[in-house]
Design goal:
9 helices
Length: 228
């Protein structure tokens, strides 16, 4: 007999993350990561939550794009701390995402993106979701939507009709998927703009520093000549 459902609080999840990754995180990344962690806490500890590989692919895709440009070693440690903070296995996320990516790439077209319980691991993952949605037990979330979109990207599909076909095949609502994908693209666009502003700022500071050092060297040279 199971006890009452008693998930950790958001504060506990945040504390787990902070205690696991103690290095400072630049604000440009940290703000988005903290928002993401709160969203994922509620997904992870929803009473109907069930881990699946498409969801893992979606999360890994979001995480990697947000942390694009971050030091590779720190990025791996940050990923581990983040996933451990929500009580899941970072190596499973990575392994499942990489497996689905490889299989989607090998398809060459979206035609093979169909639920099939007797097919390959990708088709079996889609079939498990379809069965779950049909029984009313599937808890949809935005990372799953990104996972579906990523699968289509990897097959080379670019037509909206391909997305609609896949979404309907697994039994989730196209309107929800489209809404979440637009939100996801908006977050990435804002983050990209912020990174560009940061790069411009750092470049200006670098030039100013070089100019100050050049002026200081020139002044020292002039003083040395005057004293000679």
């Amino acid at each position: 007999m199971h006890g009452p459902f008693s998930p950790p609080t958001v504060a506990e999840t945040k504390r787990n993350f902070i205690e696991a990754y103690t290095r400072p995180i630049p604000a440009i990344y940290n703000t988005v990561l903290q928002e993401l962690l709160v969203q994922q806490h509620f997904i992870r500890y929803g009473i109907n939550y069930q881990y699946n590989a498409v969801y893992a692919l979606g999360f890994v895709s979001v995480f990697d794009q947000i942390l694009d440009g971050f030091d590779a070693g720190d990025k791996a440690a940050l990923f581990g701390a983040y996933v451990n903070a929500i009580g899941e296995d970072p190596s499973q996320y990575r392994a499942d995402a990489e497996q689905l990516e490889a299989q989607a790439r090998s398809l060459g077209s979206p035609d093979g993106l169909v639920p099939d319980a007797s097919g390959n691991e990708l088709q079996q993952a889609l079939a498990a979701v379809a069965a779950s949605t049909e029984s009313g037990k599937f808890a949809y979330n935005r990372f799953f939507a990104v996972g579906l979109f990523r699968l289509l990207e990897l097959t080379g599909a670019k037509e909206p009709a391909a997305l609609e076909k896949l979404v309907k095949a697994v039994g989730v609502k196209p309107a929800s998927v489209n809404k979440d994908l637009l939100m996801y693209k908006g977050v990435l666009s804002k983050l990209s703009s912020a990174k560009e502003m940061m790069r411009d700022f750092l470049e200006r500071e670098k030039r100013k520093q070089a100019e100050r050092e050049a002026a200081k060297a020139a002044k020292a040279g002039s003083e040395a000549t005057a004293q000679a």
